[in-house]
Amino acid sequence: MKTEVVVIGGGATGAGVLRDLALRGIEAILLERDELTSGTSGRNHGLLHSGARYAVNDPDSARECLAENQILKKIASPCIEDTGGFFLSLPQDPPNYPEELLRACKGLGLPAEETPVAEVLQKEPALSPKIKRAIRVPDGSIDPFRLIRANVEEAERLGAKFFPHREVIAILTDGRLIHGVLAKDSRNEEIFQISCRDLGR
Ligand SMILES: Cc1cc2nc3c(=O)[nH]c(=O)nc-3n(C[C@H](O)[C@H](O)[C@H](O)COP(=O)(O)OP(=O)(O)OC[C@H]3O[C@@H](n4cnc5c(N)ncnc54)[C@H](O)[C@@H]3O)c2cc1C
User: Fold this and answer.
1) Which atom of ligand 1 approaches the CA of 144 most closely?
2) Is there a domain that residue 93 lies in?
3) Ligand 1 atom closest to 12 (CA)
4) Last residue in a domain, options 126, 141, 156
5) 51 and 137 share a domain?
6) How is 57-119 classified by DSSP, letter by letter?
7) What is the pTM (predicted TM-score) of this model?
8) pLDDT per residue over 49-106, tens digit each?
9) Number of domains forming the structure of the chain
10) What 8-state DSSP symbol labels residue 180?
11) Candidate of 44, 80, 139, 172 to mutate for ligand 1, largest count of ligand atoms within 8 Å of Cβ
């Protein structure tokens, strides 16, 4: 087989990269040694971060996270439940963190607002009644299985190819540039080669 780009791994990264390449008209093949989402992407908490958790200590990551959150809510809404999220302060937490968080979020244009604790406990009765303060942020819940499947299906519709149960076992180089991979079909041990465009060209 021959293609421009070989993408290794059918998790969130590989599926997103495959779709991005397909949208740009770049020929690509995705190889996954198991099934889609069989790695970390199928074992996470499904939290669609708003960036609030990074707002105080890592504003650049927070900005990127917020932009991604907003894009995903627009282009992948069937995979997202717009639950919102809370940052909660307990008696043992640093007392000035809520102020710091609110200030940092405001500086980033990240909508965060203080919510009365009684209201939060009414919505989420299993939370600790010891909560001191609560800040609502635009976190959400994301279904990684649906999102990754949708990315791959859209990429395939645009001409990309996806092969599950194919493990990349070697990267082929001429000593300097990568020009292909060797992969193994885990169901029958068959080994095949895919040539791709040299990175230098
Ligand atoms: C406990 C936990 C909770 C998390 N919770 C969240 C959360 O709530 N929200 C959030 O946004 N992020 C969360 N994350 C982070 C998020 O899950 C990861 O950033 C994301 O899944 C990484 O995706 P990936 O595609 O890079 O890796 P993976 O999903 O691991 O995909 C890599 C794939 O590559 C395949 N592979 C590996 N080697 C080969 C090979 N040689 N040939 C072919 N295929 C191969 C694997 O089988 C795998 O499917 C969490 C992470 C952890 C560990």
Assistant:
1) 21
2) yes
3) 25
4) 141
5) yes
6) T-HHHHHHHHHHHHHHHHH-GGGEE---EEEEE-TTS-TTHHHHHHHHHHHHT---EEE-HHH
7) 0.92
8) 999 999 999 999 999 999 999 999 999 999 999 999 999 999 999 999 999 999 999 9
9) 2
10) E
11) 44
Domain of 161 in residue numbering reads as 5-43+145-195
Same domain for 99 and 125? yes
Residue 75 domain-assigned (yes or no): yes
Burial class (CB in 10 A: 0-12, 13-18, 19+), 31: buried
Question: 130 and 55, same structural domain?
Answer: yes
CA-nearest residue, atom 3 of ligand 1: 44
Range 149-160 average pLDDT: 98
Q: Which of 17, 19, 36, 40 to mutate to test the pocket of ligand 1 (most atoms within 8 A of CB)?
A: 40
Tell me the CA–centroid distance for residue 38 and ligand 1, in Å.
8
Gap from CA of 190 to ligand 1 centroid (Å) = 26
Mean pLDDT of the chain: 96
Dmax (CA) for the chain in angstroms is: 65
Q: For ligand 1, say whether the CB of 85 is within 6 Å of any of its atoms.
A: no
Q: What is the pLDDT of residues 27-54, one digit of tens each?
A: 999 999 999 999 999 999 999 999 999 9
**Which of 4, 57, 10, 6 has its CA nearest to residue 164?**
10
